[in-house]
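Blackboard transcription, Thursday session:
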Amino acid sequence: AQTVTQSQPEMSVQEAETVTLSCTYDTSESDYYLFWYKQPPSRQMILVIRQEAYKQQNATENRFSVNFQKAAKSFSLKISDSQLGDAAMYFCAYRSLSGGYNKLIFGAGTRLAVHP
Amino acid sequence: DTEVTQTPKHLVMGMTNKKSLKCEQHMGHRAMYWYKQKAKKPPELMFVYSYEKLSINESVPSRFSPECPNSSLLNLHLHALQPEDSALYLCASIGGAKNIQYFGAGTRLSVL
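(Written on the board underneath:)
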């Protein structure tokens, strides 16, 4: 069974600085998707970034980028030029490509605080 | 439009009440999900509907009863809940070329 581990329960960053959130996962599959979701106090889970395992190139979305290390089973999220609106709970998630009705397996989450 | 709409936003109910949560999406997605999320925890999958048929039930107690009347609508009927069922209930749907799961803002449920 696949597992996702986020080892940092809480992180903090100064506004305009850069922060990296860690995520590791365990799987025996070769093809899968990885995601970072953001959940602000408004509660809605918002997709931040998506990575397909067969793509070597790291995904980027504006200020958000990932460092995907397939062999190490690591998928960290880098937030550049942090903004107050980035404060939220961040969940790393894994999704298998084989069956399972696109079930997401979430990590425990990292709460990010952004200080002015 | 990538919106999943959940109503109500908040719900307080007694242990003998019957209530329903509603989830709607108009993105043409064919799979819809119910999750339960306790404070400071990740969402836990409860049910998956695929093409309006129940495909996954993650051993959820029968006091939670899902229903998918059509491809755009998903309900969760609640009956005889326990205080430990108090949580945020999230709905999601999946579709599109990138097969992304989109979430609603959730219903905050309190069982007294």
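Lecturer's comment: The CA atoms of residues 89 and 111 of chain A lie 4 Å apart.
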